[in-house]
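Archive entry. Fields below.
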Amino acid sequence: MPFVSIEQIAGHAGEEITVRGWLYNLRESGKLLFPQFRDGTGVVQGVVSLKESPEAFQALAGLTQESSVEVTGRVRADSRAPGGHELQVTGVAVVQKIPESDPYPIQLKEHGVDFLLEKRHLWIRTPRQAAILRVRDQSIFAAREFMHQQGYALTDSPIFTPSACEGTTNLFEVAYMDDQKAYLTQSGQLYLEATAAALGKVYCFGPAFRAERSKTRRHLTEFWMLEPEAAFAHMDDMMALAEGLISYMISSVVEHCPGPLATLGRDVERLNAVRPPFPRIPYDEAIEILHRSGNQTPWGEDFGGDEETILSSQYDRPVIVHRYPASIKAFYMEPDPERPDLALGFDILAPEGYGEIVGGGERISSLELLVQRLREQNLPEEAFSWYLDLRRYGSVPHAGFGLGIERTIAWITGVEHIREVIPFPRTIYRISP
RNA sequence: UGGGGCGUGGUCCAAUCGGUAGGACGCUGCACUGUUAAUGCAGACGGUGGAGGUUCGAAUCCUCCCGCCCCAGCCA
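PREDICTED_STRUCTURE:
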């Protein structure tokens, strides 16, 4: 008897197959049972009659939620079944029955956030959570596929680092190395600038750690970031790469995850609108738009959640804001040659209030200017000596950006909170499970 | 780190002015041949986050502590 995954079941109508999975729910109606099985790819309803399949009926009657099973039966199209197909069960092998004395804790009812996060290791079994993780998988696969197609080589950055990318305040210290302090990385960028000078076009994809006391729906303590970096590239090249990357991720998810998107109730039309080019607005113009909208943010200040929402709500696709005041950007940002008070940096704001999903720009290539900026910021020059080597030996214009995977996936899936788009979220108040 | 909010059976909620802490789900049993988080009937288990205080009496009022949620800042 062939094993068939539930997402493939419609293609096996009329055949006898075996499904391996878990009992998602059981409705009993006299001498008829309606068990629902899930296997991680979907949910299918079974039907068992006492008269026709007494042994299967006895095996399933009273079986507890989430007990593991292998069930055999004939697939039949039936409009009364959720999903359009059901399994006429003829054989049941119970792999493990959950005892009634200790039932599965997550009901098919509403639960509170705290309870669900305490049971995250079980919560991910629910169809909605599984659909989100399915989209996460496809998004990351598509992102890596796109980067590879564009000629970018994966050169992952270290997780343990000796110093900060932009200061030490937000770093997690690790008490392990004997002689000097070690920290968990908050960005792979500095190392990517080195590998970009080695291989030309590179990227890394891995976790980043921020010891910020952020407790909003857009923040995690541990999140994943995709960071490209390219030698001889300028800010415009990176804006084009980012919009191509994001558009590719979206179209790949729309193409390969119709089931999960339907489970999530995501409006696919809004995703289909996301195609290049994305609107590009200079910071100066963004300030004007804000002022016209009644927001009085003065020139020279960075944007907060309110400002991001005003700007992004004007468009049906992500919006790129570029050329920010240099004073509010990182020390390594290349100044605009025409306006030295501006930095050649850009952010991409996702639609629908999901906020900043990309931050990046062009890096300073001049040794003298970089040293000057380090001193202005009171950063320890010796800790950056290898980084300065990149400007000593064959320095070139180069640029890159970081894309926050969880924020991007939260937007693609349409979920309220970023904590649902990573299997085991880490926040300031949660390290378990 | 600031501002706001919430902690009641395993879960989700209710409890009027300070007056015997209750319901639903879940679990058990029975009924039901097309259920859609099935339904109906019956049953069992089980709780006020913690420590003080006020009071004849505290889930309710006060103080402190703990846990969590939301917002801001920071950022992706």
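CURATOR_NOTE: Residues 6-96 of chain A form a domain with the OB fold (Dihydrolipoamide Acetyltransferase, E2P) fold (CATH 2.40.50.140).
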